[in-house]
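Let us work through a complete example step by step.
Step 1: write down the sequence.
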Amino acid sequence: MRITKIEPQKRRPGRKNVYADDLFIAGVSDETLMRLAIRTGDVISPDTLKALQHTEEVIHAKSVALRFLSTRPRTESEIRDKLREKEFSEAEIAHTIEELRKSNLLNDREFARMYIRDALALKSLGRIVLRRKLLLLGVDKAVTDEALDEAFTDVDLQSIVREAADQFLKKARQSRRRDDPRKLRARLTAFLLRRGYPWDVAGPIVKSLTGADEPDE
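Step 2: predict the structure and record it as tokens.
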């Protein structure tokens, strides 16, 4: 078969209809035509047609991934799950992820660093919670632990935990709810542990702020 005509699609800019022997064979993007260097007059074999279809699917997969990335940074796992949801093949998904890596649009190590930095600035979350959240997002354990070690190297955890506890107690005392000291201590302890602060740091701070002899573990 020989390509006899390549014409723009009327309703979809950036896409073309390809005809071989005056018969329509495919609608493809400009990028696909450019990658495969297909022109009018070229002979198109079954292998070329298969390559055209594969390239078109890869470009479509990348387009889906880029739209997904436009709302917020994503992990490789999130992109992979999204593309599987759209029923792309594993080969197309792998190709897409590799292209996004090369253009640095997908980088789990940088994602972990940014996620930890933002969480510490906005919510003052502790290491335990941050680790769990990153693992749930599909970041590799080694990458997660490396990013956490780096982030917490210069962090004054005592000050962060004390500040969080002070804010909690301030709100508790301003509310109409009046817990007895033991219940207030239990609520404060649960709050700090939910934030992911280790007990060996949170426990003594609870004790010092509530006047408890032994905070409930």
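Step 3: interpret the result. The CA atoms of residues 1 and 45 lie 7 Å apart.
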